[in-house]
Amino acid sequence: MTTFSVKTYNNINKIGLRELGNAFQIDGDHKDNPDAYIIRSENLHGTDFPENLKAIARAGAGTNNIPIDEATAKGIVVFNTPGANANAVKEAVIASTLMSARDYIAANEWVNGLTGDDVPKQVEAGKKQFAGSEITGKNFGVIGLGAIGGRIANDAYRLGMHVYGYDPYVSIETAWNISSHVRRVNDIKDIFRNCDYITIHVPLTDETKATFNREAFDLMGKDVTIINFARGELVDNDALFDAIETGVVKRYITDFGTEDLLNQENITVLPHVGGSTEEAELNCAIMAGQTIRRFMKTGEIINSVNFPNVKQDLTSPFRITLINSNVPNIVARISTRVSEAGINISNIINRSKGDHAYTLLDLDESDEAKVKALAAEFDSSDNIVKVRIIKKS
Ligand SMILES: NC(=O)c1ccc[n+]([C@@H]2O[C@H](COP(=O)([O-])OP(=O)(O)OC[C@H]3O[C@@H](n4cnc5c(N)ncnc54)[C@H](O)[C@@H]3O)[C@@H](O)[C@H]2O)c1
Ligand SMILES: O=C(O)CC[C@@H](O)C(=O)O
């Protein structure tokens, strides 16, 4: 029994996709006009949304590859999978911190270049160039204390570092999980002024773009390591090159390569693999699959970035879901229409986020034709962007 269709992009873990269950056809006949997308880093900017598309699940955290405003205006609900790959990125950042302190990549390259019977002797003679430093006791700054940054701050403290955290928007839930030993600062400049290592874990937005700019580097001391597993555009590369030149930045480690960053002595570029572990890819696919299944089968929204969370058990024969503009009296107008259609409402929930709102309208009505007629009326109404009928299974 196939009821819904999903198109996937970027190798979504197949085991995770089983969460969709057998009501979903994956990449099948309807893949050019599916109900939902499950994607990773596919860039959807500049692409057209198919007519039938109702949901996009980003198997991962960052949604800057999705034109959110356009999706919202079309009533397409965009989800992500909060925290599902956070441990993978945390481990990548801890490894990067240690690699910057000890420069093992260069050390390994140097040893591999040695030849002759006296390699052990050459090693002992030349190893002093790779004497590193220890991270214990150093100042470590974390910008963005969400799923990834919060975990990193805690572990850096456990490794003996003095940890500073900056996040003016941290959620209460996340804040509860952050060690009281992490020193929260209210001004990002305190991170730039005080830290030997700075890692950033914020979404890419107009506000966060080029967080590392000339002013930021001017506040730093010497030999600072910058770690960026969030998004490339958070760093102004020209300002970074000058900061490397003047000894302010000792090393820049990033997961986001652009041509100007490649093959530079003080820069380590990785191929966007911070979240690429077996475990994280499975976690993300499972969460994305569960989210899409729930939304398509019940209309409930959990973990959306453009619509509010809305949960309500479906106990009536039919539910109509409405995506509507967030205008005054909309609930009253919806209720009036339902009563004019001679139908009783068994439950109604309406939640708004910004300019849009989402309504679950549960109907005490078993006559499908009547429900369809009501839905068609909503569909042709001003201020209603998307209408779906869900039949209780
Ligand atoms: N390299 C990878 O493979 C990889 C994997 C996962 C996530 N990421 C990137 O990392 C980002 C963070 O992921 P997450 O799972 O921690 O997300 P998250 O939503 O849990 O945390 C983001 C945190 O940033 C904070 N924040 C927002 N604006 C800020 C600002 N101006 N200054 C300081 N803090 C601010 C938020 O309050 C939140 O606590 C993602 O948006 C994504 O771009 C990359
Ligand atoms: O899906 C990926 O490959 C990377 C994911 C990462 O950038 C994220 O934002 O979660």
UniProtKB/TrEMBL annotation:
Pathway listed: Amino-acid biosynthesis; L-serine biosynthesis; L-serine from 3-phospho-D-glycerate: step 1/3
Function, as annotated: Catalyzes the reversible oxidation of 3-phospho-D-glycerate to 3-phosphonooxypyruvate, the first step of the phosphorylated L-serine biosynthesis pathway. Also catalyzes the reversible oxidation of 2-hydroxyglutarate to 2-oxoglutarate.
Signal peptide interval: none
Protein name: D-3-phosphoglycerate dehydrogenase
Organism annotation: Pseudolactococcus reticulitermitis
Catalytic activity: (R)-2-hydroxyglutarate + NAD(+) = 2-oxoglutarate + NADH + H(+); (2R)-3-phosphoglycerate + NAD(+) = 3-phosphooxypyruvate + NADH + H(+)
Keywords: Oxidoreductase
Keyword field contains Manganese: no
ACT domain segment(s): 319-392
Coiled-coil residue spans: none
An example molecular function term from Gene Ontology annotations: NAD binding
Listed EC numbers: 1.1.1.399, 1.1.1.95
InterPro entries in alphabetical order: ACT-like_dom_sf, ACT_dom, D-isomer_2_OHA_DH_cat_dom, D-isomer_DH_NAD-bd, NAD(P)-bd_dom_sf
Pfam families on file: 2-Hacid_dh, 2-Hacid_dh_C
Protein family membership: Belongs to the D-isomer specific 2-hydroxyacid dehydrogenase family.
